[in-house]
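User: I'm putting together a small comparison set for a docking exercise, and I want a reference complex before I start. The sequence is below, and the ligand is protoporphyrin IX containing FE. Could you produce the 3D structure with the ligand included, as structure tokens?
Assistant: Of course. I'll restate your input first, then give the structure tokens for the complex.
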Amino acid sequence: MHQFPEAAKQLQNGGNQYIEMFLQETRRYYPFFPFAVARVQKDFEYEGFKLKKGTLTLLDLYGTNRHPKDWSQPETFLPERFINWKQTPFNFIPQVGSNYDFRHRCAGEFVTMSMMKATIHYLIKYISYDVPEQNFDFNFNDIPAVPSDGFTINNIHYL
Ligand code: HEM
């Protein structure tokens, strides 16, 4: 909301559909979890890559969510891209891919979306605030990758 004020303005009157798209774009654009880690259990080959038992592997969640094959203008924050969007088990993986019934997709994805909706609703309907100067940089090695100074707000007024 702070980095893309034009998009944030539309949250006020865009209704639930816009909020949903804004949150999906937030999960795509920012490195929620930049990567997932696993250690290879037995030697195998996948699409020409030979993986040896014991190798530490990273699944690039952030990179996949910006892959130009699946996302046009991947570096642009564009909630509208989620209108008529077609999800596959592996094209949008902020909380890992596949499905949560039989594989390791995060079982809390719906809970996460609900929590984000409640939070954004509170921020846009119940309070106004200022955002003081601070460091928004984050480190891609961190899980989760959060801004260096957290996110500080002040001059909070209840509406
Ligand atoms: C911002 C919030 C969240 C993020 C970014 C997130 C991310 C992830 C990621 C990346 C994994 C896969 C880990 C791996 O395979 O290496 C995972 C798995 C999981 N998550 Fe979440 N998660 C979030 C919230 C939640 C919540 C709220 C719940 C429960 C209410 C939850 C429950 C689970 C469970 C049970 C798994 C294990 C699934 C499995 O291995 O079968 N997560 N999550």
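Residues 38 and 57 are 5 Å apart (CA to CA). Helices lie at 5-13, 15-29, 61-64, 109-125.
User: Thanks, that's exactly what I needed.
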